[in-house]
Amino acid sequence: MYFLFANPQKPETIRAAQEVAELLLDAGERVVLDRWLHDILHLGDDGDLNQLSHDNTKAIISFGGDGTLLRTLPTAARMNIPVLGINMGRVGFLLETDRTDIAQAIERLRSRQYTLEKRNMLSARVQGVDETFLVMNDVVLCRGGNPSSISVDAYANDELVYATHGDGIIVCTATGSTGYCLSAGGPVLHPGLRNIIMLPICTHKAQQLPIVFDEEVRIRLRCESLPGRTQQVIFDGQHIIEMQGITEVYVQRATYSAQFIRFEPQHFFTRLRLKQAEWSGK
What we know:
Layout: E1 2-6, H1 11-26, E2 31-34, H2 35-41, E3 45-47, E4 59-64, H3 66-78, E5 83-87, E6 97-98, H4 102-110, E7 115-126, E8 132-135, E9 138-142, E10 150-156, E11 159-166, E12 168-173, H5 180-183, E13 196-201, E14 211-213, E15 219-224, E16 230-235, E17 239-244, E18 246-262, H6 268-279
Parallel strand pairs: 1-2, 1-4, 2-3, 4-5, 5-6
Antiparallel strand pairs: 7-8, 7-18, 9-12, 9-16, 10-11, 10-15, 12-13, 13-14, 15-18, 16-17
Helix pairs in contact: 1-4
């Protein structure tokens, strides 16, 4: 069975999903669509991302951008299901193909003419919140809608690294280094690396620079908001927790890995160059 997941904010994803669903169904494959998508297309079966299992799912096919793909990864990683990202817009760092190559991509997918690229993930939890988050890119403790700067103490293996005063702190993977981390002045790491990066956001202390740790580090972030003020913890830009009072966030390397379906060798630095050209409008 193949599960199709798309971005409802992009109408073009519906047409692409329809094309893929029809190709798979014509080939005799079982296809399950995210419920909102099934309600529109009436193809295959309807289902829910969080109900997938390794035993009955060959792959998740994501239509959209990196953000859409990120929403599939916690379930995919926990269930050991590979993910194929079909790009429906701008250059994506995590996506494998675009709509012009759909027919060929589906044929190669069905015949297993691909490799699996594994990427490191982070496991994160917030004190007092009964959920562990699996993160591909980054965990951010920040002031959110708070108009004031916040103070965050950051520890690595119980050793104080920063006592910051600014907008917060980012903790990210090598994959996440090309996201918020890069925008905040952090380093770019090749995605094959397993390091963990930590960097302050707009800190008032100029000497507090990004730090790259080995993969076994355990990070703890601690922040205490002023009365009537809050701070936010954000996971991959997808989940936001609003906190008051003392907030403690714990981050370490996850035992799960994301698996991306790749038809061709990856050219990371070419993608990085194209993305930078896109950002600069060239």
